[in-house]
Amino acid sequence: MKNDFWLERWEREETGFHDKEVNAYLAQYWHELHLAQGSAVFVPLCGKSVDMQWLREQGHPVLGVELSNIAAQAFFKENGYIPNYVNGGKLDSYEANDIRILCGDFFDLSRDDLAKVHAVYDRASMVALPPEMRERYVKHLVNILPPATQILLITFDYPQPEMQGPPFALSAEEVNALYREHAEIRLLAQIDVLPQNPRFQKRGLTRLQESIYLLTLR
Ligand SMILES: C[S@@+](CC[C@H](N)C(=O)[O-])C[C@H]1O[C@@H](n2cnc3c(N)ncnc32)[C@H](O)[C@@H]1O
Prior knowledge:
Layout (H helix, E strand, L loop, with lengths): L2 H9 L12 H6 L10 E4 L7 H7 L4 E5 L2 H10 L5 E3 L5 E5 L2 E5 L13 E7 L7 H14 L5 E8 L14 H8 L3 E10 L5 H5 L6 E9 L1
Parallel strand pairs: 1-2, 1-6, 2-5, 6-7
Antiparallel strand pairs: 3-4, 4-5, 7-9, 8-9
The chain binds S-adenosylmethionine (SAM).
């Protein structure tokens, strides 16, 4: 999947993945991480997610990475901030109120960028990537995160032949195969969500599950 696909979606305002409400699973399961106040949280492929504002309200400095400058600028505008902007070459930076969005490619992030991170919140990030990119995503992520980082991962699973992604289906088997070498994996919940999603029923899905995992890096 090319970066232009996402940049064009932001330009054309095709952002059906964006949720105006705070993610219900985030609010329900975040306490499972038992993070200290002030622990920094990384949000990969963050879009303009309102969950970043929620995480900040829980006392966490937030660091996001996002390809699209349109998304980063919209996040700060819609949350009432005027960010400080720094042109950083590969990764530009927007920052206000201890929320920083690095604008550029996730794969250009380095260990130094994530040195202070204690936790990761992954919603609609891993499932935004096609299966062939996921191994690279997980390898890069675990390589640049500090040891013992916790990851709250929300996935989406359905019979892949029934619909073209994104979001792409991500099964429990694949989460295990990709992460088991690097992390302890705990499944916190698995929920059938097809009845609440007529949009996906119309697209032909016969099964749709969301799963919430807590991963702890070794
Ligand atoms: C499905 S959206 C999810 C956004 C956000 N996580 C949310 O919950 O609303 C995926 C986002 O990842 C961004 N993205 C895709 N590939 C990326 C990459 N390689 N580096 C940084 N951002 C990327 C896209 O621009 C898009 O905003």
